[in-house]
User: Fold this.
Amino acid sequence: MMQLLTERYRSRLYGVLSCYDRIVITGTLPGICYAAGMTSFLYAKGIRIFDYARFAEPLRERIRARAQQLAEEQGARIEFIGRAHVRKEDVVAKVLAERGDHPGLVHVISVMEACESYKPWHDKASGKTCLRPDSGKCLHYYFYFIDEALGLCYLRVPTWCPFRLQFYCNGHSWLARKLAAAGIDFTAADNAFVRLADMERAQALADCLKPDALHRRLDRYAKRFCPVLDVFAQRYHWSLMQVEYSTDLIFRAEATLKPLYEQLSRQAVLAVKAEQVASFLGKKITPQLAQEIGSRFATRIEGTCIKHRFGKTGVKMYDKFDRVLRLETTTNDVSFFKHHRKVEHRDGHTTRELAALKKSIYSLIDLREILAGCNRRYLEFLSALEDTSGGERDLTRLTEAQHQGERKIKGLNFFERSEQALLRALQRPEFNIHGLRRADVKPFVPLSDSALSRQLHRLRTLGLIKRVRRSYRYYLTRLGRAAIAAACSLTQFQILPALAAAR
Assistant:
């Protein structure tokens, strides 16, 4: 039976920790975040549409004045950055090195960036005057501050209507403060923990991020840094823009992780195909979706990174400081994922069904379980790739004939063409998620119904698949997943290239 990396290296690990990493949240004022809404607001206030610029100008000055006021009160500095290659994080890091990490405003960065806005427009055909969407560049303020609970955060505030905010925090920074408050000893490096005294309590704390508490803090900071809410008499709606969820295998020594990571990264970049990427993320693959899937090997300052992309969502693997093997699922669109939830229909009735995840920050609770599942499936795949000690016993059991009463069950020949066609069919991601029946497999293998039934019975006897009780639905066993992945990888990346080179 295949061992997960977490089990195989148990004695060489401090433990495993899963936690939110980067979280980016968008704040919008519901009534004015679209042109028609702002148009209605102006009409309700008795403001001419072509006086929109005159209405918006004082609001821009309010934000500038508030930035200056807060910087003076807290001894911070407003720094304009006009060059694209300058990283804001590096600028703030230098300030923190001198200032320290006590709560309060750290630094204010101003920068000209793209911004959504509106412009007046008169439709001569209908005689109606309204606002239309527009875009351009305006001054943005990045307020970097240390929150007593969340750690280092920033709030990005544009000086143009409709004042769409962007908030950033990091789950590891939040957890570090929770650990300190709970008296749990730890050693952190960047946004990772390289040592934890109590892994079980740390994981329990990591799982208790509460969206309602986050919501209250967001409202407080919006009121503080964007002083226009009294004009519109609205509260911000907060939605998830970008989310990262990591599973860290924390090793006790560099000597263990370094060779392991080198082996895993070499195999992952070659072995992971579109079908596997889809299965990691709990998706079925189609010809259209296959075009959105890809893998990439990248070199970072900290080291190398293997990233498998599926549209705006992906799963990646990288090491941190040769001590932490991080598996991470990232998404720029949480509605990519589906779960069972209450759905409200236009006629007023509600049903519970499988639907896209809402973008609200209150989806963080359900999203944690979904992303943890993605990381777990990726870990299982990597464990199968790395597990070259699968053993003589299992190989013998799979390839040699077995006797079932008077009946002889032929062993597998992993390199025979018809055998490989059947094994590849069993690997299809839709079967990994929902299981398979004979009728599901038949389109992918050139076998009659009776022959296919015999093959499924044979694979069940050999231990590659198991049947769901009181049904005709089958699932791959751990041994089946490991054996098929190894056989297909060996054929494609070793045997075929070697034979081709010998011609």
The first strand starts at residue 13 and ends at 28. Residues 148 and 479 are 48 Å apart (CA to CA). The first helix runs from residue 5 to 8. The radius of gyration is 28 Å.
